[in-house]
Specification:
Length: about 60
C-alpha cells in the first residue's frame, strides 16, 4: 500500500508548490527544474493512479462501502 501512498503524497506536495509559485515557474528566468515541475506533477499523479488500478484487480486493496 505504501508503494502508491508515497508518490501520491509527493504529487500533492508538488501540486501545492506549483500553484503557489505559478509566476516563478512560467517566468523567463526559471531554472530547468522549475520548468519541469508540471511534467513531474503529471507523472506522479499518473503513476499513483496506475498503482491503485493495478492493486484493485489483484485484491491487494479492498474498497468498502
Amino acid at each position: 500500500m505504501c508503494c502508491f501512498l508515497v508518490p501520491l503524497a509527493q504529487a500533492v506536495a508538488t501540486s501545492i508548490y506549483r500553484r503557489n509559485n505559478r509566476n516563478a515557474i512560467n517566468s523567463a528566468e526559471a531554472t530547468l527544474l522549475k520548468r519541469n515541475i508540471p511534467a513531474l506533477e503529471k507523472m506522479l499523479w499518473g503513476g499513483s493512479v496506475m498503482l491503485i488500478v493495478d492493486h484493485l484487480p489483484k485484491q491487494e486493496e479492498q474498497i468498502y462501502f
